[in-house]
Structure formats: C-alpha cells, structure tokens
Amino acid sequence: MGEIALIIIAVAVAVLVIFLVVLIVKVMKTVDEMNRTIAVVTQDTDILLKQADTLMAKTNTLLDDVNSKIVTIDPLFTAVADLSESVSKMNRSGNDFATRFKGKAANAGKATAIVTLGRGAGKFFNRKKSRA
Predict the structure, then answer these.
(1) Which parts pass through the membrane (predicted)?
(2) What are the φ/ψ torsions at residue 63 (nearest 5 degrees)?
C-alpha cells in the first residue's frame, strides 16, 4: 500500500513539474516578447523625440522670423492708420465746406433773384420815366 501511495505522489509531482515547466516556458516567451516590444517602443520613442526637437527648433526659428517681420511691418500699419485718420478728417472738412457752401449758395440764389428783380424793376421804372 505504501508503494502505491509513493507512486501516486511521484506521478502527481511529475505532472506538477511538467505543468510548471510548460508554464515557465510560456512565461519566458511572453517576457521575451515584452522585452522586444519595449525595445521597439523605446527606439521609436527616441526617433519621435528627435523629430519633435527638430520640429520645435524650426517652429522657434519661424516664430522669431514672424516676430521680426511684425516689428518691420508695425510702422506700416501705424502709417496706414494715420493716413486713414487724415482722410477721415479731410472728408469731414469737405462735407462741412459743402454744407456751408450749399447754405450760402441757397442764400446767394435768393439774393441773386432779388437783385435781378430789383434790376428789372429799375429798368421798368426808368422806362416809365423816360416815356413820361
């Protein structure tokens, strides 16, 4: 009886050892695959970081260039704003002049009509005096 128990224990231990060996082999394959994946990801990350550094350097250069051009163009915008303000003032002055001239022209038209009427009346009365 003791020998059967030892054989059962030996078979159970052998099955357990075989199961553990298979499990350890699968775990080792998984760990190797993870190591390869980590190596690839690390390599790709290094490449991406280098490209990002290059991109950032180019972006900084472009930004510096744009800022220097803005400084160059800024007086142009100031001059255009001043010119626009001058044109607006000139336009207002022209409108004011036209309004005043229109008022004077209307008054001059009335005055001209009165003078013309007066001259006509003067000629009429002069004719009457000369006939009489």
Answers:
(1) 6-25
(2) -65, -40
H and E: helices and strands count for the chain: 1, 0
Per residue, what are the HEC states of 38-95? HHHHHHHHHHHHHHHHHHHHHHHHHHHHHHHHHHHHHHHHHHHHHHHHHHHHHHHHHH
Reduced to 3 states, what is the DSSP secondary structure of residue 100? helix
Range with the lowest mean pLDDT among 12-26, 35-49, 114-128? 114-128
Full residue range of the structural domain in which residue 72 is found: 1-132
CA distance 58 to 119: 87
* Amino acid 89: pLDDT: 80
Q: Is the pTM of this model over 0.90?
A: no
Q: Cα(111)–Cα(119) distance, rounded to whole angstroms? A: 12
